[in-house]
Amino acid sequence: MEIMHKASSSLSCKISFFPSPDNIDSPRTLATPFRHSSASSNSQQLQLQLNRSKNHRPALSPLRCTASDSVKPQEMASKDGQDPRIQKISSAIRVIPDFPKPGIMFQDITTLLLDTKAFRDTIDLFVERYKDKDISVVAGIEARGFIFGPPIALAIGAKFVPMRKPNKLPGEVISEEYSLEYGTDKMEMHVGAVEAGERALIIDDLIATGGTLCAAIRLLERVGVHVVECACVIELPELKGRERLGDKPLFVLVNGA
Amino acid sequence: MSAYGDEDPRIQGIKTKIRVVPNFPKPGIMFQDITTLLLDPKAFKDTIDLFVERYKGKNISVVAGIEARGFIFGPPIALAIGAKFVPLRKPRKLPGEVISEEYILEYGRDCLEMHVGAVEPGERALVVDDLIATGGTLCAAMNLLERVGAEIVECACLIELPELQGRGRLNGKPLYVLVEYQ
């Protein structure tokens, strides 16, 4: 039995799955290593209304790598200070308005996963940063952290530890409750997956308010692990998740304004 | 035919890393826990390598992974063979336009979704999950891909529970597994 849920009328119709590249020449996409505000967000909103039925829109604007203090920043290849791979990664991310509810601009990384080079570059950027840093644990947050974490773990020779929603992990777990906008949720990790003194990286696709990452940090620290850094593909700086991580450094590839 | 590669010396190491947790999620079920495999970098790497060696050079352009444990094994395979990774998800997780396929559970039904436009007609696809039990989920996954005109090359899992006869539920499509649990 099939349920067609908002399916396209023709299976062979080529929906432009990638955002149109019309933002590439605009000044705000020039890479800088510093934050800048998305002054054009109002015009983007209008564009969104028009593009909504096409289900794509120009992707994220500010492109930025952040370097933590405790992990030495990698060399930037291009003279404006940004790794040349970032642009393609950023433009491969699709923004879906009003998902999962009105007002939310959802950062969809699935389009990045369809671009084999951009996906490869994403992983490489993290691997280059974290290999040789004696990291023995990569913890990935369910579910999109499961996509980026394992390739990084494999490349740097670390174990991968899934951080899961309640009642998914079998056997003994420890739990950490955290706040949502409305209510709370829980994150779980296996007892015995990590040992005291191990050095860990936490991976998720995106940091918004930082609540989920915070819960992951607490779980690892409760068992004596040293969290070296949190790493995400995307940051939503307006939601100030970075501050919520306190003294824990955060590294991201791209800003979603 | 069960091509579960038991001659390869890496298989034994992989098998010993899988932990069986009795009575999870409910009494009577012997749950095959792959998280312990993920804690062993060599065994995890060997797992991926075994799949990559089998599928590179086969012109596979899509690796579809079933939420959530298929997300752990699918992407490393996709990256290594130069294919795109397509997540197949529970309902309402994927934003934007999706197609859905309903499938039967022991009690009730569930649904798997895929993005419209992620896969094009004629693409050659691999479907990856950690385990095949009854085959219901894998079947739904294959249906989604075939509905958009993709060609299923093979289904690939770490573990098969042969007593549940999932292999026969795949509409004649081949299945490759590393380990059987009797």
Helix content of chain A: 25-40%
- SSE sequence of chain B, one letter per element: HEEHHEHEEEEHEE
What general outline of chain A do the C-alpha atoms trace?
globular
Number of strands of chain A: 10
Radius of gyration of chain A (CA) equals: 19 Å
How are the strands of the biggest sheet of chain A laid out side by side?
Answer: 5-4-8-9-10
Strand percentage of chain A: 15-25%
State Rg of chain B: 16 Å
Q: What are the segments of chain B in which pLDDT stays under 50 over at least 5 consecutive residues?
A: none
Give the helix/strand class of chain B. Answer: alpha/beta
For the largest beta-sheet of chain A, the strand count, sense and barrel status come to:
5 strands, parallel
Order of adjacent strands in the largest pleated sheet of chain B = 4-3-7-8-9
Q: What's the number of helices of chain B?
A: 5
EC number (chain B): 2.4.2.7
Pathway (chain B): Purine metabolism; AMP biosynthesis via salvage pathway; AMP from adenine: step 1/1
Family (chain B): Belongs to the purine/pyrimidine phosphoribosyltransferase family.
InterPro entries (chain B): Ade_phspho_trans (IPR005764), Adenine_PRTase (IPR050120), PRTase-like (IPR029057), PRTase_dom (IPR000836)
Q: If you had to describe this structure to a student in words, what would you say it looks like?
A:
By secondary structure, chain A is α/β, with parallel strands linked by helices. Chain A is 26% helix and 23% strand. Chain A has a five-stranded parallel sheet with strand order 5-4-8-9-10, with helices on both faces. In chain A, strands 2-3 form a two-stranded antiparallel sheet. Helix content of chain B is 29%, strand content 31%. Chain B is built from five helices and nine strands; from the N terminus they run αββααβαββββαββ. In chain B, the strands form three sheets. A five-stranded parallel sheet of chain B has the order 4-3-7-8-9, with helices on both faces. In chain B, strands 1-2 form a two-stranded antiparallel ribbon. In chain B, helix 1 packs across helix 3 (41-55) and helix 3 packs across helix 4 (70-81). The mean pLDDT of chain B is 95. At the A-B interface, strand 1, helix 4, helix 5 and strand 5 of A face helix 3, helix 4, strand 4, strand 5 and strand 6 of B.
